Automatic annotation (TrEMBL):
One of its GO terms (molecular function) is 5'-flap endonuclease activity. InterPro entries: PIN-like_dom_sf, XPG-I_dom, XPG/Rad2. Transmembrane segments: none annotated. PANTHER family: ENDONUCLEASE, PUTATIVE (AFU_ORTHOLOGUE AFUA_3G13260)-RELATED, FLAP ENDONUCLEASE FAMILY MEMBER. It comes from the Eukaryota. This is XPG-I domain-containing protein.
């Protein structure tokens, strides 16, 4: 699965990972979709995989994105790996996003994440604010 591939990539990187799961006080709707009230079975399988790779798990009281953003804001984690930017409004200063296609500057070589290579984009809130003239 994609998640297994991601965890496999992360275990080869010189990093410590913390996976966060929504808690019982999670919002009823996230990203315009109704949220599960009970964790699906595949979440339990994901938890087992995370533990098998010796990574840490945090069960948030509410929204996991909000918890990770707070950890990031106060330096407990260096960045938040996510599919979207919804942790920025919670105060996260740095987001990592898996990128399937990346064009490297002057060489214009197309690179993508593969089974042996993980390519990520890095977004800093301060740079986005500066580019938008919000600083």
């Amino acid at each position: 699965t994609q998640f297994c591939m991601l965890v496999s990539h992360l275990c080869r990187a010189p990093i410590a990972c913390l996976f966060a799961f929504d808690g019982p006080e999670r919002p009823a709707v996230k990203r315009g979709r109704k949220v599960f009230t009970n964790e699906p079975d595949y979440f339990q399988l994901s938890r087992r995989l995370i533990k098998a790779f010796n990574f840490n798990i945090h069960d948030a009281r509410g929204d996991a994105d909000a918890a990770l953003a707070v950890f990031n804001k106060f330096g407990a984690v260096d960045a938040v790996l996510t599919k979207d930017g919804d942790v920025f409004p919670f105060g996260a200063p740095c987001i990592l996003r898996v990128n399937m296609y990346v064009i490297f500057s002057k060489t214009y070589l197309l690179a993508e994440s593969t089974p042996s290579k993980l390519v990520v984009d890095i977004y800093h809130a301060r740079d986005i604010r500066r580019q938008l003239g919000l600083t």
